[in-house]
Write a structure and sequence with these properties.
heterodimer; A: 4-stranded antiparallel sheet; 11 helices; 36% helix; globular; B: mainly alpha; MetI-like fold; 12 helices
Chain lengths: 314, 339
């Protein structure tokens, strides 16, 4: 399992660097994703989840840090061929199914875009067949190829977006909140499709979302982000059972359950970053408090957490 | 109640099987963006009538000068200042060749012993106004189309580069535009016409020299809007290069706005040309444009109103038609009026 596909090391992404309007969208985060697993990234709006995804796939140039994909730094300048190769291996599914498909193109051309760019089909017929088989993979049918995106529902569009990403046979897919714009019944459909595809094709996902229950369902490991920093990282079950960082606790306390009796007694724990009260000499860093369970904390907090850590089994 | 249901005759019911494979079917015929727009445009009566009128005017501009056998430039002083006379209509009491001569209505054709018909009359030099009108329309339309095309090409390229590449390129290009737009157009045009030989080319260049700015701004705004849309990001992650992104993703989406804007540029160019000709900076005689014809007519408005009437009518029709078509296209291409 420890076959690392993607490794992010001290990644930083600052916008308007050096100006008064500087935004530290990603502030020194590190994590690794193993081949074949799903890594969930959660956090509130604007905490840098999407920016992380986009920096990894090089839509943005990182301010500092490294992203190693198969051991190669993706941020390095490379030859055209190497770039194309990278584009094939890493793909992205976008958040808004209404904005992620070009309204002037037929579904056929949208899905075939990657095939055209990388010359994966030798003839028109082969191209067509590939697109149709991709459509069928995502649960649509061949008639849909000749239609325009506006004729589809949100869930169908999202599946077209998935088919487009799959067209180039990627190893790694960044799913940037692929379900947050869909209604609940369709969310399950899309998430299950992603799971099936993972089993069939051995895909690795970086799943960005803010819906905690969905992330727990799909992810093997979860990272929690807060204001550009990764505050906690653990396996999905471990994180839910033993949240250590105050922000994670607050996040988990915000999950509503379809249980009126529980809901009446549920108390949301607010999170205030000032509660940490870090002194200027305290060294705040990512520490492992239990095997494979990392928390952003200071020395003092680290000792306390270790003391208080009682592994709960559900 | 329960009993009633049990008593319902079994044979009258038929079990319906839902074929889940057809659940995703779309019944509606597939329409492309332009087909859809045409369906909407077709419902707009004003736009359709304007289109027909416009086609007629363009046709007349092309064939009109050859219809009545007169020449637009031949001067015939014996036939000067004749009122309109058209076969057929003359019996209805209008366009019958009668005109005012020192307060009295007299048949000027009979008086001057002219046998030919001048449908729209003649000017002070005895030139046939019908022929001159359509020749002038031709020139005006030509100037307008060429100027609009130049605006389109320069505006789209300039705005596209500025918007797509952004950053410092955009900053510099927009400052240049701001400087250009700060100079009053009329001053630029007058200066241009002073250094250039007056004529067709001079007017086209004069109109285009600042005319593309509007187009470039619109295109830039559109490109800025689209270039960070997720479908463009998706194309980028798939490895598409800039030229592919521009030609396949950005231009098709901006095209509607470009068409609409061009539809409004053309009448503006016609009007501007007429204005230049009217103030005497435009075409030089003997060539005619709608502007010079109106200028000629304006001088004799009190005595021979028909000299002014026909070119004024044609220019009004052109302006209204183009504007209505532009409006119709805007409604058809952008039904949500997002832009």
């Amino acid at each position: 399992m420890s076959d690392v596909l993607l490794e992010v090391k001290n990644l930083k992404q600052y916008f308007n660097e050096g100006k008064a309007s500087e935004v530290r969208a990603i502030d020194d985060i590190s994590f690794a994703i193993n081949r074949g697993e799903t890594f969930g990234l959660v956090g509130e709006s604007g905490c840098g989840k999407s920016t992380t995804g986009r920096t990894i796939i090089r839509l943005y140039d990182a301010t500092d840090g490294e992203v190693l994909f198969n051991g190669v730094n993706v941020q390095d300048k490379k030859t055209k061929a190497a770039n194309k190769d990278f584009n094939r291996k890493m793909q992205m599914i976008f958040q808004d199914p209404y904005a992620s498909l070009n309204p002037r193109m037929k579904v056929m051309d949208i899905i075939a875009e990657g095939i055209d760019v990388h010359g994966l089909a030798s003839s028109k017929k082969e191209r067509r067949e590939k697109v149709i088989s991709l459509l069928e993979t995502v649960g649509l049918n061949r008639e849909h190829a000749e239609r325009y995106p506006h004729e589809f529902s949100g869930g169908q569009r999202q599946r077209i977006g998935i088919a487009r990403a799959l067209a180039v046979d990627p190893e790694f897919i960044i799913a940037d909140e692929p379900i947050s714009a869909l209604d609940v019944s369709i969310q399950a459909q899309v998430v299950n499709l992603l799971k099936e595809l993972q089993e069939e094709r051995g895909l690795t996902y970086l799943f960005i979302a803010h819906d905690l229950s969905m992330v727990k369902y799909i992810s093997d490991r979860i990272g929690v982000m807060y204001f550009g920093k990764l505050v906690e990282m653990a396996s999905a079950d471990e994180l839910y059972r033993n949240p250590m960082h105050a922000y994670t606790k607050s996040l988990l306390s915000a999950i509503p359950l379809p249980d009126p009796i529980y809901e009446r007694s549920r108390v949301r724990t607010p999170y205030n970053p000032k509660d940490h009260n870090y002194g200027s000499d305290e060294h705040v860093e990512f520490r492992e408090i239990a095997p494979e369970h990392f928390v952003l904390c200071s020395d003092k907090e680290f000792e306390e957490m270790k003391k208080n850590y009682v592994p709960k089994e559900s | 109640m329960k009993k009633d249901i049990e008593q319902l005759p079994q044979e009258q019911f038929e079990r319906v099987h839902i074929d889940s494979s057809k659940a995703e079917r779309i019944e509606k015929p597939s329409l492309s963006f332009w087909q859809d727009a045409w369906l909407r445009l077709r419902k707009n009566k004003a736009a359709i009538i304007s289109m027909v009128v416009l086609v007629l005017v363009v046709l007349m501009a092309l064939i009109g000068p050859h219809l009545n056998g007169h020449d637009g430039t031949t001067q015939n002083l014996r036939h000067a200042n004749l009122p309109p006379k058209m076969p057929g209509i003359e019996k209805m009491g209008i366009m019958d060749g009668y005109g005012n001569l020192s307060g009295e209505k007299v048949d000027l054709y009979a008086m001057k012993k002219v046998d030919e018909y001048y449908w729209f009359g003649t000017d002070g030099l005895g030139r046939d106004l019908f022929t001159r009108l359509w020749e002038g329309t031709q020139i005006s339309l030509l100037i307008a189309f060429v100027a609009a095309m130049i605006d389109l090409v320069i505006g789209v390229i300039y705005g596209g580069i500025s918007g797509y590449f952004g950053g410092r390129t955009d900053d510099i290009m927009q400052r240049v535009v701001e400087i250009l737009i700060g100079i009053p157009t009329l001053i630029v045009v007058i200066l241009m016409l002073m250094i250039m030989e007056p004529g067709l080319m001079a007017i086209i260049i004069a109109i285009s020299i600042t005319g593309w700015i509007g187009m470039s701004r619109i295109v830039r705004a559109q490109i800025l809007k689209f270039k960070n849309q997720e479908f463009v990001l998706a194309a980028r992650t798939l490895g598409s290069n800039d030229s592919k992104i521009i030609s396949k993703h950005l231009l098709p989406n901006v095209l509607g706005i470009i068409v609409i804007n061009t539809m409004f540029t053309i009448p503006n160019a016609i009007f501007f040309e007429a204005f230049l000709s009217f103030i005497g900076l435009g075409l030089q005689p003997p060539s005619a444009s709608l502007g010079t014809l109106i200028n000629d007519g304006f001088k004799v408005m009190e005595f021979q109103p028909y000299v002014l009437l026909f070119p004024a009518l044609v220019i009004s029709i052109l302006m209204i038609a183009f504007n209505l078509i532009g409006d119709g296209l805007r409604d058809a291409l952008d039904p949500k009026m997002k832009d």
